[in-house]
Amino acid sequence: MAELYGVETKRVNEAVSNNPEKFPEGYIWELTNEEWDSLRSKISTLKNSGRGQHSKYPPKAFTEKGLYMLATILKSPKAVETTIAIVEAYAKLKELSRVIVEVPQHEDKSTEQQVLLHRGGQLVEGIMSDMLPKQSSETSFELNLAMFKLKHSVKRESDEEIKHLRAKLAELEKKMGQ
Length: 178
Fold this sequence. Notes:
Elements: H1 2-5, H2 9-18, E1 28-30, H3 33-42, H4 44-49, E2 60-62, H5 64-73, H6 77-102, H7 111-128, E3 137-144, E4 149-156, H8 159-177
Antiparallel strand pairs: 1-2, 3-4
Helix pairs in contact: 5-6, 6-7
């Protein structure tokens, strides 16, 4: 975890020790000595690297919720970046839930309903975009609730394709400017 968030292991341990109220049951647990011994015996690289071999305390294991909470406490750039991403995703999910509730309140195929469906698709795309691979692919999201259906396709271009398209656009802009 320390490596993931760009801090020393002792900073992770300090964060947990100094903020026990932020790690309720289901957020973090400490491996028992038996679990730690079993894990060490299965990971030969641990013995060869010297990392964790003579550790004073068994390691802590974090659930996904614990990882997010840890990100909010640590002060490294990566932890701050993770916290911001979590807050942004949460805000988008809240807005998406409001959109989903509002869609059935409008007449089928009305302009208002179409605008809401489009906004819902944008929100889903925004939430999923960081998780999708950066290669050329097309992904469709389809949400079928009893009263309405939301379908939105997302196409992500590879970095090379994006550079190529930007070059073409610059060429066109140059020609248009002449």
